[in-house]
C-alpha cells in the first residue's frame, strides 16, 4: 500500500491556488476564550484546499508574529473563541450545468 499523494506538495497540480471562486463562510460565536500561550510554537499547517461543514466547531486563534504564514511556526498565540459553522455551501454538477446550494441554519 502506498502513501496518498499530496497534490500540492508533490507539484501534481498546475497551480498553488485551485479556486476559481469561493464563498464566505458564516458562523456563530459559541464561546469566547481569553488565553495566551507566549511560547506555544504553533506550526501553521498548509491547507490550500479546505472544506467546512455546517455544525462544525472551529477554534479561532491570533498571533502577533508579522511573519506568520502557512508552513511557518509562530511562538505566540492568543485563543479568542470557537465558532460554529452556520452556512454550508455545496456545488453539484449536472448535464445542464452547475447548481449551487446554500443552506442556512438559524
What is the total domain count? 1
- What structural category characterises the helix and strand content? mainly beta
Q: Globular, elongated, flat, extended or rod-shaped: what is the shape?
A: flat
pLDDT below 50 for ≥5 consecutive residues: which ranges? 90-106
Quick check: average pLDDT? 76
Q: Helical stretch count?
A: 0
| Order of adjacent strands in the largest pleated sheet | 1-5-3
How do the helices and strands follow one another from N- to C-terminus? EEEEEEE
The count of β-strands is 7
Largest sheet: 3 strands, antiparallel
What percentage of amino acids are in beta strands?
35-45%
Helix content: under 10%
Topology:
Elements: E1 27-37, E2 42-43, E3 57-62, E4 73-74, E5 77-85, E6 87-94, E7 97-104
What does this structure look like?
It is built from no helices and seven strands. The chain starts with 26 loop residues before the first strand and ends with a strand. By secondary structure, the chain is mostly beta strands. It has one domain.
Amino acid at each position: 500500500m502506498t502513501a496518498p499523494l499530496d497534490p500540492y506538495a508533490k507539484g501534481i497540480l498546475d497551480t498553488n491556488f485551485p479556486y476559481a471562486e469561493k464563498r464566505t463562510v458564516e458562523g456563530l460565536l459559541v464561546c469566547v476564550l481569553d488565553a495566551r500561550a507566549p511560547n506555544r510554537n504553533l506550526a501553521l499547517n498548509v491547507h490550500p484546499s479546505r472544506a467546512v461543514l455546517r455544525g462544525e466547531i472551529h477554534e479561532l486563534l491570533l498571533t502577533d508574529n508579522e511573519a506568520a504564514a502557512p508552513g511557518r511556526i509562530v511562538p505566540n498565540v492568543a485563543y479568542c473563541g470557537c465558532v460554529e459553522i452556520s452556512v454550508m455551501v455545496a456545488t453539484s454538477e449536472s448535464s445542464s450545468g452547475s447548481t449551487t446550494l446554500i443552506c442556512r441554519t438559524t
